[in-house]
Amino acid sequence: MSQTGHRMVKEITKTVTLDYLLHIPETAEPLAADQKWPVILFLHGAGERGNDLEMLKANGVPLIAGQDKSFPFIVISPQCPVDEFWGMHREAVMALLEHVLENEAADPNRVYLTGLSMGGYGAWDLPLFYPNTFAALAPVCGGADPSKAEELRNIPIWAFHGAKDDVVYVTESEKIVHALEALNADVKLTIYPEGDHDAWTETYDNPELYKWFLSHSL
């Protein structure tokens, strides 16, 4: 017999590289030994891809953190390379998160994931591969395959979208949210009736989002 079946099992090491912004809240007093900060992992949109981290400060949570040095979350904002997508960098993003959790006063039970546009899709995608990591999820003008709803049903989710978005249609959020609602998941969708693709400015300027994040923990 010239061909026989076999299985190869071999451990390999992979090197990943990712540039990122890191916000650590500035406080008048140092943290107590047992105190840890909640964490926001932020995934930017397609327009901020590249190798210039300053681009990330224009929108979303990095903009908020840049305006308020005491913003009370550790904020991790990786940058996706040009012409690539977040789904191509899942391992690197999670390695970055693990690195920050190990080296900063970060609470692993209060890690919140959010992103806008391309990053909104990334925010829906990442928990599919890394369950039991994120305490809550807030995708902005993104979307996901509704057939994946079962895999997301145990994560509290608050999605946001502009009704007049002509870049990512609001139906992208509606389809996955409706599938989750059918499973009685903890999910809600805010649609801005006059909003276009920029659903992120109003979303991230809303203090209720951060209160909602903090109401959830693993």
From TrEMBL:
Record flagged with keyword Protein biosynthesis: no
Pfam families for this protein: DLH
Coiled-coil features, chain-numbered ranges: none
Keyword line: Signal
Residues in Dienelactone hydrolase domain copies: 94-197
Signal listed as a keyword: yes
SUPFAM superfamilies: alpha/beta-Hydrolases
Annotated InterPro entries: AB_hydrolase_fold, Dienelactn_hydro, Plant_Biomass_Hydrol_Est
PANTHER family cross-referenced by the UniProt entry: BLL1128 PROTEIN, UNNAMED PRODUCT-RELATED
The protein's name in its UniProt record: Prolyl oligopeptidase family serine peptidase
